Amino acid sequence: MTDTRRRVKVYTLNEERQWDDRGTGHVSSGYVERLKGTSLLVRAESDGSLLLESKINPNTAYQKQQDTLIVWSEAENYDLALSFQEKAGCDEIWEKICQVQGKDPSVDITQDVVDESEEERFDDMSSPGLELPPCELNRLEDLAELVASSLPSPLRREKLALAVENEGYIRKLLELFRMCEDLDNTDGLHHLYEIIKGIFLLNRTALFEVMFSDECIMDVIGCLEFDPALPQPRRHREFLTKTARFKEVIPISDPELRQKIHQTYRVQYIQDMVLPTPSVFEENMLSTLHSFIFFNKVEIVGMLQDDEKFLTDLFAQLTDEATDDDKRHELVNFLKEFCAFSQTLQPQNRDAFFKTLSNMGILPALEVILGMDDVQVRGAATDIFSYLVEYNPSMVREFVMQESQQNDDDILLINLIIEHMICDTDPELGGAVQLMGLLRTLVDPENMLATANKTEKTEFLSFFYKHCMHVLSAPLLANTTEEKPSKGNAYVPHVFFSVFVFNKTFYFMMLTNFLLVDDFQTSQLLALILELLTFCVEHHTYHIKNYIINKDILRRVLVLTASHHAFLALCALRFMRRIIGLKDEFYNRYIMRNFLFEPVIKAFLNNGSRYNLMNSAIIEMFEYVRVEDVKSLTAHIIENYWKALEDVDYVQTFKGLKLRYEQQRERQDNPKLDSMRSILRNHRFRRDARTLEDEEEMWFNADEDDLEDGEAVVPPSDKLKPGEDLMEPISKFMERKKLKDTEDKEVLGKSSLSGRQNPSFKLSFSGSTKTSLSSPPSSASLNPGSPGSPGSPGSGTRSSPSSTTVTTTVHVSILAGGLVGLVDYPDDDDEEEEEDEDGESKEDTPPPSKKSKLSS
Fold first, then answer.
1. What does the similarity note say (predicted)?
2. Neighbours of 804 (CB within 10 A)
3. What are the tens digits of pLDDT across the range 312-368?
């Protein structure tokens, strides 16, 4: 569509009483069969999709504002608005609405009568209009009573608004105000306060346009100074004319824009400072005032964006070295307010705003500003930078990567941001916390783009770890050169860091002096750095891994576990816990090679018997190693620190680690056992359900007398080859484990075999049958100290005497090429991960079938 008369923006009012922009399109009206009535239709100008479909209900109140706005409510707390590009289009749609509702198009609001008795409704319908008393001093009390009595009724409120508007009553009232003020007529001033306040509550745009005009607005504010509830009048006009100053850091040539800025400031002041806080019943009566301010702000931003000369001059003076400090301070503050002002805009308008600033070169300008010595200017620049990062982090990343090709690392924008975080003078580090959040957003892979031609994640992370990470970690490295930070208020010789800028170059200077290195502010800073590094461990891969291992970062971090600030020690533990949680063997070998569990053990022992967060965090770390069965770390902990941990018995974590370690050692000490397990695993094969049923049927139909004792039943294709050597027999019995101990593997003796049993049965190998095995069963019992022994804590023989078990007799034949078993063991994920150490060929002998015979 090319008809600009019908071009509109669709707005909805959200819960915060702010207007949300739903899109731009073209409006039309017509009969909609589905809604059974004439409706307003708005289709998007971009793709033709339906933005709005609203039936014109006879009882809905529509309001026409500022000649180009139509506002109405479709349901409770759901307000809609159409903002027309041209007045003619607004008039056409308004006439259509009035035609459907049977209203005169000359009115600016259609309103149904609510909450009125039939008598009142009849009286209102019979009276053609509301007659106002003459605008005279002696009739102000009557007028105030009339306004107060009309506010509860929507219809009377509408009639009062029309009467005030048509008779030019507001200007007459303001003339009376000036007269009362000259005569010090206090009663008249109090009545005028009530009248003007009531006119605000009429919620009518046409009246606001009169009251907020240049010739009337100061008198309106003067009327609202004389609140009867206050002993003395307020001095709002004095503040606006003498205290508040309008500064044009860049001259504004457009008089309409200047007038709009003045008007918006004063109306905002009236809303925030002059008008009393509305009651619950009056809050919705000021919705038009909110709308008036909102649309004024949209117009101001649009006018400034369209004024290319204004923005060009602004950024030229910001980056000009000849600009004096006071002028630059004003320019930065204006730009900060401009960006803050844009936050009230809706997404589409805000996108256009920041794209304009980006095209004008806001990021290079910020780089210049951040290098200034003025703390307030740098703070304002930081706020502007936060708006840009929150709006579009990819735009910021692209800029800093491009500038790295031309500038040194010391003056890169992102390094200047890190410098401000490190050098924050606030004892609570409020600014540093804000900047850490911005850096976290910039290095977050979740908001990085991936296209066919390039991957932003790979490029930016490579840049960040090469050019910026050493700046971020410098305080950590400088403050952990000693074995531990000093405690309390003791001063010790310690290497600390100082950051300064000389000739626009960023330096870290090592200082050897008597400095307190474990004070609260330093600990806060190190905690922030650790939080960001922990985030990198969680979300980055090889970049952070290479940096930690090459720079020995974890060892430096664990020095902080000796800090007397518990939050810093816990940050260090959390950093190590995230690394262990990755279960990366590169990290694990690094931890073991440098014995990095030692400071953790020291912190645990120094904590003593106190049951606190430090105690729980450390125990949880070791519990994770045990539950996840991180074999390398388990062996390292037990072999190096068991003596220090063996007496800890109030939790079973460390004894559980010892049990895991012993199981690993027994598997390593019994390679033949592992070989047998591997043979069993590699000669298992999966059978489909149909084959299994056929073989089971054959088994149960077979006559036991037809079978020789100890002979395994196998299909003809799996018959044994003659001349094959026999292997050692398996003669050990395994007892069923309890269901709660299923995560621990059962370990047998040198000639034992482990297997996972079904909790409902006790599985054993029958030794009473005649077999062709070459050696008799061994009578050796389980190792007394092993986890599977009857006397060990992990033994599975703790079932109650009353429990009933079913024994399964298993016939096996051991052959040189493999083990033919009649029990098909379930798959074990842990076994599947172990490497096959059996050197025998797996291809010479096909996998035999396995069957089991049940006997009670």
1. Belongs to the SMEK family.
2. 7
3. 888 888 888 888 888 888 889 888 888 887 877 777 778 888 888 888 888 888 888
CB 456 within 8 A of CB 397: yes
Work out the angle between the directed axes of helices 520-539 and 413-422 (0-180°, nearest 10).
140
| Contact status, residue 420 vs residue 472, Cβ threshold 8 Å | no
3-state secondary structure of 36: coil
Q: Which two tokens stand for residue 93?
A: 């749609």
State the Cα–Cα distance between residues 738 and 740, nearest whole angstrom. Answer: 6
Q: What does the block give as tokens for 215?
A: 């010739």
Q: When comparing pLDDT for 419 and 849, which is higher?
A: 419
Distance CA 661, CA 668 (A): 11
Name the residue type at position 161: A
Cα–Cα distance measured from residue 394 to residue 412, given in angstroms and rounded to the nearest whole number: 16
At residue 237, φ and ψ (nearest 5 deg) are -65, -35
Q: What is the pTM of this model?
A: 0.58
Residue 766 clears pLDDT 60, i.e. is over it? no
Q: 3-class SS at 109? A: strand
- CATH node for 4-101: 2.30.29.30
Buried residues in 442-471 as b, exposed as e (16+ CB within 10 A):
bbeeeebeeeeeeebbeebbebbbebbbeb
As a whole number of angstroms, the distance between CA 260 and CA 299 comes to: 8
At a CB cut-off of 8 Å and minimum separation 6, what does 633 contact? 580, 588, 591, 592, 625
Torsion, CA 587, CA 593, CA 594, CA 599, rounded to 10: 80
Q: What secondary structure letter does DSSP report for 246?
A: -
Rounded to the nearest 5°, which phi and psi values hold at 806? -110, 125
Domain parsing of the chain, residue ranges: 4-101, 139-244, 286-391
CB 55 within 8 A of CB 35: yes
The 10s digit of each residue's pLDDT in 478-508 is 888 744 444 443 333 333 333 333 333 333 3
